[in-house]
Design a protein that fits this description.
Blueprint: E1 6-18, H1 22-31, E2 35-42, E3 44-57, E4 60-79, E5 87-107, E6 112-133, E7 143-158, E8 163-175, E9 181-194, H2 227-232, E10 245-250, H3 268-280, E11 284-293, H4 301-323, E12 330-334, H5 357-362, E13 368-377
Parallel strand pairs: 11-12
Antiparallel strand pairs: 1-3, 1-9, 2-4, 3-4, 4-5, 5-6, 6-7, 7-8, 8-9, 10-13, 11-13
Length: about 375
């Protein structure tokens, strides 16, 4: 789920299921001197909900909405004592109402998340009963409005920062208008749309200090040299090749952390660190910039190779966007877990194959991006 806070709306539709208490119905009929010969339940229907909410941070939001759980019912066939007189009792209930929920969110990846909800539902139960033969209904249309508990679990996937999809399982506690409480379960699929989601602006570049040229050194008096002497002088040495400058941006928990664990999007703190590095190179002419992404050893080789390439591409894209460096001057590549900073045996996993927080923290130096720059600075 997106980290952006703000308002959102959505809707779900799916299958609702009621648990019809056949034993209670049989017992109630028996109290009226009826013998139940069969009961046919209609306990499935289509349910839906419409909701709106406000997300306070990446882990918590509040939702309110309208729901319609559908209609459920049963038909009981009965007889009376001799002389036996057959008859039927048909009962139906329709449920709809409003709710308010607190939603806890657990981001898993950049786009995938899990969530749980707990709240209250104010449901309107509208019953109808009809009898045939020997069955007479005294109150054919009882109804009840009541407030009860509501629970749910779900998963979400964001197609974009604004549009996402949800799959949910929810349980509504309901008063059935004839003195009983029961549960209605709903399995649904829906969409969610967030308002006002914008891409964060890049951090402004720090202004480079003004360059002050050193005072010129006085030239020595000219010396006259004959053409013969000039011809015997050795050729001047070639201009020195500028040495590359290499900077490593880590992915640990420090202030200039570039990525989160298992992430490739550049963090705001990482962008500030890159901005400072670019500001230090103001006035230089870039000839070659090589960006190399790295991962730790957790995960498969193929997955780590792809993750390291995505990290390198993210840094390259930010250098092109924020510093205005031509993209053809930057080479991005991934090294996977092949060039670790940690030493063999330095980070041990004491819980077998399970990845622990201690192992992730120990391998933090391996999750990094190296930026190697070959540049020359003008002397005027």
């Amino acid at each position: 789920m997106a980290d952006d806070v703000g308002w959102y709306v959505g809707g779900n539709i799916g299958q609702s299921r009621a648990k019809i208490d056949d034993v209670r119905i049989t017992s109630s009929l028996l109290g009226g001197k009826f013998t139940t010969t069969s009961i046919i339940d209609d306990n499935h229907d289509t349910g839906y909900k419409l909701f709106g909410g406000y997300q306070f941070n990446k882990n918590f939001s509040v939702e309110a909405g309208y729901f319609d759980l559908g209609q459920f019912g049963y038909t009981a066939t009965v007889t009376t004592p001799l002389p036996a007189t057959p008859g039927t009792l048909t009962g139906q209930i329709r449920l709809k109402g409003i709710n308010i929920d607190a939603v806890g969110i657990l981001p898993i990846t950049e786009n995938f998340s899990a969530f749980g909800r707990v709240g209250l539902n104010y449901a309107q139960a509208r019953d109808s009963f009809t009898g045939t033969g020997s069955v007479t209904v005294l109150n054919p249309t009882p109804n009840k409005n009541d407030t009860n508990l509501k629970l749910g679990l779900g998963i979400g996937y964001d197609f974009t920062k604004s549009l996402g999809m949800r799959a949910e399982v929810e349980r509504y506690r309901i008063n059935d208008a004839v003195g009983n409480r029961g549960d209605i379960d709903v399995i649904s699929l829906g969409l969610i749309y967030r308002f006002g989601v914008k891409k964060p602006a890049p951090a402004p570049l720090a202004a480079a200090p003004a360059y002050v040229a050193p005072a010129p050194t006085p030239l020595p008096a000219p010396v006259l040299v004959s053409k013969e002497v000039v011809a015997k002088l050795p050729p001047p040495p070639p201009a020195p090749v500028p040495a590359p400058r290499k900077v490593t941006f880590s992915a640990d928990s420090s202030a200039d952390s570039l990525f989160g664990f298992d992430k490739f999007a550049v963090s705001p703190a990482g962008k500030q660190a890159i901005d400072k590095f670019v500001a230090d190179l103001r006035g230089a002419t870039f000839s070659v910039i090589t960006v190399t992404g790295h991962t730790d050893r957790i995960g498969s080789h193929a997955y780590n190779q792809k993750l390291s390439e995505r990290r390198a591409e993210s840094v390259k894209a930010y250098l092109v966007e924020s510093a205005g460096i031509p993209s053809d001057r930057i080479t991005a590549k991934g090294a996977g877990e092949s060039e670790p900073m940690t030493k063999p045996g330095e980070c041990k996993n004491n819980k077998g194959h399970k990845t622990t927080k201690e192992l992730i923290a120990c391998l933090a130096p391996d999750r990094r991006v190296d930026v190697e720059v070959v540049a020359t600075r003008s002397s005027n």
